[in-house]
């Protein structure tokens, strides 16, 4: 599945944070210990703007230019009406592919270990776009 939480609750929240005033982000671990991220939109933005924002954060961390381009295409195609307020974007990084689901519906994936690592880095490396706070398992 492309939802890192599995079937709504299959994984525990490990960290959360507010990336910008545009969305909040939660980091999850799947049962296989693969990290996943859920972005909950706090306001609406267009598909192109959201895709470009994530690609701009991923690109300097990833040497796989084709995968980055494919990721942007996937984002734009997955959001035909843009990202409305309260939209959930779920990103799973297991199995060497970056999977995307929107509001619980799988929208596809891009097979690239470097892309998965780069996407994780956007929220976890020393240059992360926000600091994630640890939370206890529920």
What is the SS-derived class?
alpha+beta
N-to-C SSE string, H for helix and E for strand: EEEHHEEEHE
Query: In DSSP terms, counting alpha (H) and pi (I) runs of 4 or more, how many helices?
Result: 3
Assembly level: single chain
Q: Any idea what the shape is?
A: globular
* Strand residues, percent: 25-35%
The Rg value, from CA coordinates, equals: 13 Å
Provide the spatial order of strands within the biggest beta sheet. 6-5-4-3-2-1-7
Q: Main sheet, how many strands, which sense, barrel?
A: 7 strands, antiparallel
What value does the average pLDDT take? 84
Low-confidence stretches: 1-13
Give the strand tally.
Answer: 7
Taking the alpha carbons of the first and last residues, their distance comes to 22 Å
Percent helix range: 25-40%
What does this structure look like?
Strand 1 and strand 2 (23-29) form a beta hairpin. Helix 1 (47-58) packs antiparallel against helix 2. The radius of gyration is 13 Å and the shape is globular. Residues 1-13 have low confidence and may be disordered. It has helices at 47-58, 65-78, 113-124; strands spanning 12-18, 23-29, 35-41, 88-92, 97-102, 105-111, 133-134. The protein has a 7-stranded antiparallel β-sheet with strand order 6-5-4-3-2-1-7. It is α+β, with helices and mostly antiparallel strands and 138 residues long.
Write the layout of secondary structure elements.
Layout: E1 12-18, E2 23-29, E3 35-41, H1 47-58, H2 65-78, E4 88-92, E5 97-102, E6 105-111, H3 113-124, E7 133-134
Antiparallel strand pairs: 1-2, 1-7, 2-3, 3-4, 4-5, 5-6
Helix pairs in contact: 1-2
């Amino acid at each position: 599945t492309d939802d890192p939480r599995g079937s709504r609750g299959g994984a525990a929240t490990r960290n959360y944070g507010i990336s910008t005033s545009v969305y909040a982000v939660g980091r999850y671990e799947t049962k296989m210990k693969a990290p996943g991220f859920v972005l909950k939109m706090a306001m609406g933005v267009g598909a192109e703007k959201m895709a470009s924002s994530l690609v701009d954060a991923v690109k300097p961390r990833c040497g796989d230019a084709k995968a980055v381009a494919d990721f942007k295409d996937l984002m734009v195609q997955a959001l035909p009406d843009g990202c409305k307020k309260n939209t959930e974007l779920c990103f799973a990084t297991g199995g060497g592919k970056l999977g995307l689901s929107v509001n619980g519906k799988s929208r596809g994936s891009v097979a690239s270990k470097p892309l998965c690592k780069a996407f994780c880095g956007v929220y976890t490396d020393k240059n992360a776009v926000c600091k994630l706070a640890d939370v206890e398992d529920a």
